[in-house]
C-alpha cells in the first residue's frame, strides 16, 4: 500500500512517468546502489543509465533494460528537478529518490505475511506433509518434529494452526484411533492407553473421551468395572489363551501369571479379579 501511494504521488507530480512506473522491470538499479551515490536531492542525476556499472543494471531479479527504455529514462532524469508541492511534504525530491523509495518499500514487503516469509511457510508445510504421509502425529509430536528441523517457531505455529483448521491434525481422532488399535491388537487396557496418549501430548479431556468410546461402546449403563460387557468378553477370550498356556503350572502360579498379564496391560484390580474368577470357574485345573 505504501509503494502504491508513492507511485500515485509521483504520477501526480510527473505525468510523463506513467510509462516507467507500469512495471518493476523498468527500475534499473536497486535502492542500495542509489544510496551510495553522492548527488544532491535538489539536483537531477548527473549521469545516464549507460554510465552505471554493469552489475548495477542486473539487480537481484536479473533486470534487462532495453535501449529504448534506457533512452527514455535518460531523458527523464536529465529534465528539471522534481519539486515538492506545498501540500505534499513527503514527495520525493528527485526522480531517483522516487524510484529508490518505491524499490526499497517493495523489497521489504516481498513475500512476507505476518512477519513470516512465504517461502519459509511453504518449506514448513512440505516438511509437515512428508511427516504425516509416513504416519499419524499428535499436534505436540508434529510441533516437536518441525522444531527439531530448525524451523522458526512462528512459522511452525502458523502451519500447525492451518492444518488443525483444515482437519489434517486432530488429537481427538488420533486418540480414539490409537486406543482402539492398541485395544484390539495388543489388548491394552484404559490405564496403559491413557498413559501412552499423555506422553504423546494429547490433552486429558481428549484422552478420557477416547477411552470411554472404545471401552464403553457408548453404553455407560451396560458397563462393569469401567468397561462394557462386550469389551469384558473380548478381554476374557484373550486372558483364556494365557490361562491355557500355563496349564502345566500349579494353580497359584497360573493365577499369578494371568494377573501380571492383565495388570501390565493397564486393567484395574476390579477387572483383573473378575477375569481370574471367571477363568477358574470355566477352566478349572
Please tag this protein with its features.
Regulatory protein RecX, Arc Repressor Mutant, subunit A, two-stranded antiparallel sheet, 4 domains, 4 strands, WH-like_DNA-bd_sf, RecX_HTH_2nd, mainly alpha, Regulatory_RecX, 3% strand, cytoplasm, 60% helix, 285 residues, two-stranded antiparallel ribbon
Helix tally?
A: 14
What is the overall pLDDT average? 74
Summarize the helix and strand pattern as letters: HHHHHEEHHHHHHEEHHH
The class by helix and strand makeup works out as mainly alpha
Into which percent range does the helicity of residues fall? 55-70%
Low-confidence stretches: 19-69, 76-92, 106-110
Spatial arrangement of strands, main beta sheet: 1-2
How many β strands by DSSP? 4
Straight-line distance between termini: 86 Å
DSSP strand (E) fraction?
Answer: under 5%
Work out the oligomeric state of the chains in this entry: single chain
Radius of gyration, whole Å: 36 Å
Overall, the morphology is elongated
Biggest beta sheet summary: 2 strands, antiparallel
Count of the domains: 4
Task: Give the gist of this structure.
With 285 residues, the chain is an all-alpha fold.
Question: Could you walk me through the main structural features you see in this protein, from its secondary elements to its overall organization?
Answer:
This protein is an all-alpha fold and 285 residues long. The protein has four domains: 2-110, no CATH class; 116-169, Arc Repressor Mutant, subunit A; 170-215, Winged helix-like DNA-binding domain superfamily/Winged helix DNA-binding domain (Arc Repressor Mutant, subunit A); 225-285. Helices cover 60% and strands 3% of the residues. The protein contains 14 helices and four strands. Strand 3 and strand 4 form a beta hairpin. The model is unreliable at 19-69, 76-92 and 106-110 (pLDDT under 50). Belongs to the RecX family.
